[in-house]
Write a structure and sequence with these properties.
Elements lengths: L2 H27 L12 E4 L25 H22 L6 H15 L2 H19 L7 H13 L3 H17 L6 H21 L8 E2 L7 E2 L2 H26 L7 H17 L1 H4 L1 H5 L5 H30 L4 H17 L3 H17 L4 H8 L6 E2 L17 E9 L5 E9 L5 H13 L1 E2 L3 E2 L2 E2 L3 E10 L1
Antiparallel strand pairs: 1-10, 2-3, 4-7, 5-6, 5-10, 8-9
Helix pairs in contact: 2-3, 3-4, 3-5, 4-5, 5-6, 6-7, 7-8, 7-9, 8-9, 9-12, 12-13, 13-14
Length: 463
């Protein structure tokens, strides 16, 4: 090889190295794919074939999935509603009582179209017409206030959400003898518990508020302290709802069972997150001190839940309800004990429920069906739901599992037997942890509880 050829070869090699370096730099310039956002991951078991369970659910539809009228139809309906309102104003004046429901209908149409900024002043005008004609604290303005609250939520207008909630509370407090106030207290309580659950699922949500207590300087609460305060407010509202339900016993509005379940749910949310929500528990660094403090809080919350279940059962006895209903309430009390690892109390309560059924004349087959339903019972039952066949399409995918349970309803083995295409591995890992933390109601067969149970269960997921 000549000297010139060697020089050309050397230059070519150098050029190749430079090109490879440039390609490497170019490849590094492309950002990696974004991490999978599982902050809103949710698992729901499928309803087994042949099972009939009332508690079925599907994920909240996105705006694209929501069933809404077409834009053209809404525009037409809004124009027609505006004409109706104008006609009523011309006939009976701007403060005609009949204007209020028409304005409410217009606001609902605006909300369906997504025009919440337009809906809010229309709702306020309807509310003022009610106040003008029926008095400042008439409960007929509640639908307007509730709709306004929904629009504030849609606009993420947290600065006035509290004021709107206060309007509802003021109406309830001014009308203690009206049975309708139970629904106000109940819905506000559910709303507050839901707010805390959202925060616990997605801590990026801002729960920090500024308080001014008795004219003192504002105090900035941490999100965790605000969450506890919000749960306490919810329990106050549940207590007011219970008083109203017991006092009026109205067939309309929430039942005592509905309200008590909501109250117990608030205890469960705090108990499951005591390490995050209790500042002292979070600050205690001692290996023994922290668990002991947390166990004390959980024990107190467990006891409050027990009181709620007994209140329900006493009410059922006084109302002469069938013993089957009371046995079902005892079964739920047993579940509550089991969730808090009070296994002896749980099985004693289960046995009492079984004895009550047998004394009421239930056949062995009926007792068997009562304690060993086709669908596995995830505890606590008020947080559980099942996906029916017509709801599966709303989820991103599914994972088929084989689960082995011990005699107290805890998972001891978890195997994946199938999954939908492109199911992320991280979702499978999260499901395994979710099942390990879950509790199932033990099944009764023959003369005793099943020492080991095997489930084949499909879980749907979305995020």
């Amino acid at each position: 090889m000549t000297r010139r050829m060697r020089r050309v070869t050397r230059f070519a090699a150098i050029a190749g190295i430079i090109m490879l370096g440039a390609m490497g730099r170019g490849a590094a310039a492309y950002p990696p794919p974004p991490p999978l956002d599982l902050s809103h991951l949710e698992f729901v078991p499928a309803l087994p074939a042949g099972a009939s369970v009332a508690a079925q659910r599907a994920p909240s539809p996105t705006s694209a999935e929501a069933q809404k009228p077409e834009r053209a139809e809404l525009d037409k309906a809004i124009n027609e509603q505006l004409d109706t309102i104008q006609s009523e104003e011309n006939a009976n004046g701007k403060y005609s009582k009949d204007l209020a429901p028409e304005l409410l209908s217009l606001a609902v149409l605006y909300q369906q179209r997504g025009d919440h900024i337009l809906a809010i002043p229309v709702l306020e005008r309807a509310r003022q017409i009610i106040r003008y004609n029926e008095g400042l604290y008439s409960l007929d303005q509640v639908p307007m206030v509730e709709r306004a609250l929904a629009s504030r939520d849609a606009l993420h207008d947290g600065s006035v959400v509290g004021d709107t909630e206060d309007q509802l509370l003021e109406l309830a407090r001014k009308n203690p003898s009206d049975a309708r106030v139970a629904d106000i207290y109940y819905e506000l309580a559910n709303r507050h518990v839901g707010t805390v659950e959202k925060f616990l699922t997605d801590p990026s949500q801002d729960l920090t508020v500024t308080l001014n207590v008795d004219g003192l300087a504002p105090h900035r609460e941490t999100p965790e302290e605000t969450a506890l305060t919000t749960l306490d407010d919810a329990r106050d509202n549940y207590a007011q709802a219970i008083r109203s339900v017991v006092r009026h016993r109205s067939p309309d509005g929430p039942s005592l069972t509905d309200v008590e379940i909501g109250l117990v749910h608030s205890y469960y949310v705090e108990a499951q997150n005591v390490n995050r929500l209790s500042p002292l528990a979070a600050q205690t660094s001692s290996r023994l001190g922290k668990p002991r403090y947390q166990e004390g809080i959980r024990a107190a919350l467990h006891e409050r839940g027990v009181e709620s279940y007994w209140r329900r059962m006493r009410f059922s006895v006084k109302a002469d309800r069938h013993e089957t209903e009371i046995a079902a309430e005892q079964l739920e009390l047993g579940d509550w004990h089991l969730v808090f690892d009070n296994n002896a109390l749980a099985f004693a309560t289960y046995r009492n429920a079984r004895l009550l059924l047998e004394r009421s004349g239930a056949t062995p087959e009926e007792v068997q069906k009562f304690f060993s339903p086709l669908s596995p019972m995830v505890l606590p039952t008020f947080t559980a739901g099942f996906v029916g066949p017509d709801q599966a399409a709303a989820y991103r995918g599914y994972i088929d599992t084989a689960i082995t349970l011990n005699d107290v309803g805890k998972s001891t083995r978890f195997d994946v037997t199938g999954k939908s295409p492109q199911t992320p591995d991280e979702v499978v890992h999260r499901l395994k942890r979710y099942v390990a933390e879950s509790r199932f109601r033990p099944r009764f067969e023959g003369d005793g509880w099943v020492p080991e149970d095997h489930l084949s269960l499909r879980y749907y997921y979305t995020y």
